[in-house]
Specification:
Layout (H helix, E strand, L loop, with lengths): L2 E7 L5 H14 L2 E4 L7 H11 L3 E6 L6 H17 L4 E4 L7 H11 L7 E5 L5 H18 L4 E5 L7 H7 L9 E4 L6 H12 L12 H20 L10
Parallel strand pairs: 1-2, 1-3, 3-4, 5-6, 5-7
Length: about 240
């Protein structure tokens, strides 16, 4: 038996974002691929791992929420690969979702608030579940930090958009909110958030980025996959573990 773990990132048109993801995957000790824009793509990575003789592969979607990529694109590619490489058992793990580690890292990125409103900015999605999860994560962060003045908006695909969020959450004295990109890595959208927020006079705090707590969360996902495959007798169901 020869095992491996494959971390699937979104991919970016921004080389800086791809380099940040690659460094993170290497720090986690995992193979990696990108779903869009750059190689290695998920099909390329699966072909390479099969040629290498990997017999058991754990695939972890490194996505915050379950949008179209997590719900449709990744499972479809994996189902195709299972037919192409029958000697390699491919097990699909869960995306990140709502986890305390993310709350801890996000609270740290928010930093000192000093009575100001905080505006988390998510990517946005056409899938209602992903949009609802962003709202749930915002509510959890309020509870986690004890700060009720934390709100959210999106940079694309779903309302409210960033300009609307900034306008809605200025204080009575016109002080703009602190903006926190709720993104794993930098890229075109994170840099767009920075431009829009700074033009509106907002202070922008760092995105989630590379953090040991997120690496630990990935290792928990990996352990979860291997434990459940043992309990299920090696089931290859494409339903995430």
């Amino acid at each position: 038996m020869k095992k491996a773990v494959l971390l699937v990132g979104h991919g970016s048109k921004d080389p800086e974002g791809n380099a940040e993801f690659e460094a993170f995957a290497q720090a986690a000790g995992m193979r990696y691929c990108m779903l869009d824009y750059v190689e290695p793509s998920l099909p390329t990575a699966l072909a390479s791992l099969a040629a290498e003789g990997i017999t058991d592969l754990a695939v972890i979607p490194y996505f915050l929420f379950a949008g179209g990529h997590v719900k449709k694109d990744i499972p479809e590619i994996i189902n195709t690969a299972r037919k192409q490489y029958p000697k390699m058992a491919i097990y699909l793990g869960r995306h990140l979702g709502l986890e305390n580690a993310l709350l801890e890292v996000c609270a740290e990125r928010c930093g000192e608030i000093k009575g100001r409103n905080v505006l988390l900015v998510g990517r946005g999605s056409l899938h209602a579940e992903a949009v609802a999860d962003m709202a749930a994560q915002t509510a959890c962060l309020r509870t986690f930090t004890g700060n009720p003045a934390i709100y959210h908006c999106f940079i694309a695909l779903a309302p409210p958009d960033l300009p609307t969020g900034i306008k809605a959450h200025r204080l009575d004295d016109n002080t703009p909110p602190i903006v926190v990109p709720y993104f794993l890595f930098t890229g075109i959208l994170v840099k767009r958030i920075l431009r829009i927020a700074q033009d509106a006079g907002c202070e922008v705090r760092p995105h989630l980025g590379r953090d040991a707590r997120l690496i630990h969360l990935l290792h928990q996902r990996e352990t979860e996959i291997w434990q459940k495959t043992q309990l299920m007798g090696g089931s290859r169901s494409c339903k995430p573990f």
